[in-house]
Amino acid sequence: MRGESGAPEVSSPPRRSGPREPGRQDWSSWPHYQAAASGFRGYWYPVAFSSRITGRPTQVTLLGEKIMLVRDGGTVFALKDRCPHRGVPLSEGKRQFPGTVSCAYHGWTFGLADGELKAAITDGPASPICGKVRQPTYPAAERLGMVWVYVGEGEDAPPIDEQLPEELVDNPAVVGARIQRRTGNWRFACENGYDEGHAKYLHRTALWRVFKSMPVWNETRIERRGRWIYRVQEKQYWDADFPGLGTWNSQAWYKQRPPKDVTNIGNTGSHREVDPVIAAQEFPGFASVSMPGVLRIVYPTFIHYEFYVPIDAEHHLYVGVMANFSRGIRTLPFYVKYLGFVRWLFHGQFSAQDKWMVEITDAPPEKLYRPDDSLLKWRKLAEDTCEGRAARPKDGG
Ligand code: FES
Ligand code: FE
Fold first, then answer.
1. Average pLDDT score over the chain
2. Does pTM top 0.85 for this prediction?
3. Where do the domains of the chain lie, and which CATH numbers do they carry?
């Protein structure tokens, strides 16, 4: 990762014409990514725990669109949450007949599966408007104990399993999850998650890391495999001498380093054996990211995922999922560990440090440094994958 002169080499996007302060970058080199403030269409997004979606309609916002979710006959349905009559949210309504939802205002009643106006209760059974109005619907599915909604452009939704991390589709897993609405653009959250530099410094004070050492810096390269890009740790430096300043590290006598042979797997400080399902994936690096903003951090006995779900340009859902591939009675320790402390230390205090940074990030402009190669490669992945998929402006209809 060093240039021929030995000087640090920073990956830069191609130059665009127009004045720019030397060394500073805006996002115009990734026009589709830049336009995707409210997210990319054409993907499935997790929006709520399955247990929260009942027969009572609920509103969620996804890519700036208000969506009503309701469960009927065990199946979750998603409809645009604006009654076409006078614009009242359908989520204020109720189910009056099986397979339908009725608007709270004048009782327009829509089929949940197809959005067709089946009845206008206050205009009687022969209301001539019936069958002439169709409310937009969204594909919905349930995976990992959550409801997922597809936001697209009217094309058939691809199977959700094509978008989930492959190992979660192919192997049974137990999961612990946290869903939290957070302030800040979803891209800042994703960039923070995949950012190679921050964990070693920002998270050095996290209780989750209290008994685990962090290197000062790494030599890293980014490798693409399939739809994922991986951070491959080539070398870790546990101490560093900064000329004229002194040495710096985040070591302490009570902190453990990972075994030398697990450089490219997350450091939990103790495990030397890697779960066979995780080992079989042969991940080239412990941190990877894929579209539309899915982070995967691989530890020896579990995998942690973060889904950054665009609510609108200023807010996102943080969906943290921890998965363990044990079977039967061997899942018990995972539940005890997750509910006992992982939920509070990792999905809680550790992740709150990321939340803090995402809230106060203010870019572009920005001046990037060598570890930001990870961030640049993520933007390139998004740009190359997503032409024309940025969220469209609200139609207000
Ligand atoms: Fe929905 Fe009138 S606004 S029925
Ligand atoms: Fe972090």
1. 87
2. yes
3. 43-151 (2.102.10.10), 160-388 (3.90.380.10)
